[in-house]
């Protein structure tokens, strides 16, 4: 005999009671959290609709042959095998990108730290200087600045005009395969404002009495920098290094504008992202471009994981 049949008249069954309790708990939770979820709704839509969803779709497309005109055709690991064994432009793009990362990130961080230390000396009008030095970070990734940079380093540009006053005949920097990558490195270093602001905040957190005690002990400025500033600033250096490395791997606009979208001359400015763009929207190999994109994700993940694993040996925290 069922519980409902054994329940006396007018009594509530166990199942009904548990359902009512669960429904009441759900209503209380919803009434308490509904405003928060409503405020989060735009972010949730953007995350699932514009980030997670497209990422999962691109992961599927990386295993297909898809030209955006016909339905995707499953090819398994063929795209990844081709990347690893039969694509010389992939190797060229990786070489250019790694060169750019290795050169631009250390120089940018060093220059940003140098400027931050200069601003940390108690200059008047410090907020104005911060805004001025931060401005290139806001403008540096734009198309207009890339066009301006191309004009500066052209054969008849301002850089060669300045060199001519000293009797130096400069080359066409952007059209010479030996120099073109360095113009992009210089553009990256010019965008030092963002890490500079973070370095300045880190310098402001170092107690001044440590420098005073070191001065009383006869420590030089260089020794104070090496023994006090650098060790206490390593968490900030680590953060800036990781962020700037990821940004360097994702650089696209300067190489696209300066090379006219070709990556030339002789693939000397063929950034990985530019090659990915060419495969996707130039050659309409969307499946292959998706595989390239996931290889880039893996490369960035490996570099980031390596940075975190090695940070225990050189990053010093308060404890």
Number of strands: 2
Q: Strands across the major sheet, in which order?
A: 1-2
Mean pLDDT over all positions: 86
Please state roughly what percent of the residues sit in beta strands, choosing from under 5%, 5-15%, 15-25%, 25-35%, 35-45% or over 45%.
under 5%
> In which range does the helix fraction lie?
over 70%
CATH C-level category:
Mainly Alpha
Gross morphology: globular
Kindly identify the CATH topology. MetI-like fold
| Ends apart, CA distance between termini | 67 Å
Task: Please compute the radius of gyration using only Cα atoms.
Answer: 28 Å
- The H/E string reads HHEEHHHHHHHHHHHH
What structural class should be given to the helix and strand makeup?
mainly alpha
Unreliable runs: 1-5
Helix run count: 14
CATH architecture: Orthogonal Bundle
Transmembrane segments: 37-63, 98-119, 131-149, 179-203, 224-243, 255-277, 289-309
Domain ABC transmembrane type-1: 94-307
Organism: Rhizobium hidalgonense
Family: Belongs to the binding-protein-dependent transport system permease family.
């Amino acid at each position: 005999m069922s519980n409902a049949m054994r329940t006396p008249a007018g009594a509530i069954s166990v199942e009904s009671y548990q359902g009512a309790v669960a429904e009441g708990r759900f209503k209380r939770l919803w009434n308490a959290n509904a405003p928060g979820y409503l405020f989060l709704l735009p972010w949730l839509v953007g995350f699932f609709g514009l980030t997670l969803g497209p990422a999962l779709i691109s992961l599927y497309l990386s295993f297909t042959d898809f030209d955006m005109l016909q339905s995707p055709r499953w090819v398994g690991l063929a795209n990844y095998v081709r990347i690893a064994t039969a694509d010389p432009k992939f190797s060229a793009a990786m070489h250019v990108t790694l060169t750019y990362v290795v050169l631009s990130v250390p120089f940018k961080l060093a220059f940003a730290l140098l400027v931050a230390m200069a601003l940390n000396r108690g200059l008047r009008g410090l907020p104005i200087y911060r805004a001025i030095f931060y401005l290139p970070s806001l403008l540096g990734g734009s198309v207009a600045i890339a066009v301006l940079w191309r004009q500066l380093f052209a054969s008849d540009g301002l850089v060669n005009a300045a060199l001519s006053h000293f009797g130096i005949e400069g080359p066409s920097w952007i059209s010479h395969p030996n120099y073109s990558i360095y113009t992009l490195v210089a553009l990256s270093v010019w965008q030092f404002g963002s890490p500079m602001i973070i370095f300045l905040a880190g310098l402001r957190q170092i107690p001044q009495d440590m420098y005073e005690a070191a001065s009383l002990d006869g420590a030089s400025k260089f020794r104070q920098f090496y023994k006090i500033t650098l060790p206490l600033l390593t968490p900030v250096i680590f953060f800036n290094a990781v962020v700037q490395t990821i940004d360097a791997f994702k650089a696209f606009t300067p190489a696209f504008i300066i090379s006219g979208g070709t990556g030339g001359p002789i693939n000397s400015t063929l950034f990985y992202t530019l090659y990915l763009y060419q495969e996707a929207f130039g050659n309409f190999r969307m499946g292959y471009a998706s595989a390239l994109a996931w290889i880039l994700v893996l490369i960035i993940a490996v570099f980031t994981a390596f940075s975190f694993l090695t940070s225990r040996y050189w990053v010093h925290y308060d404890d």
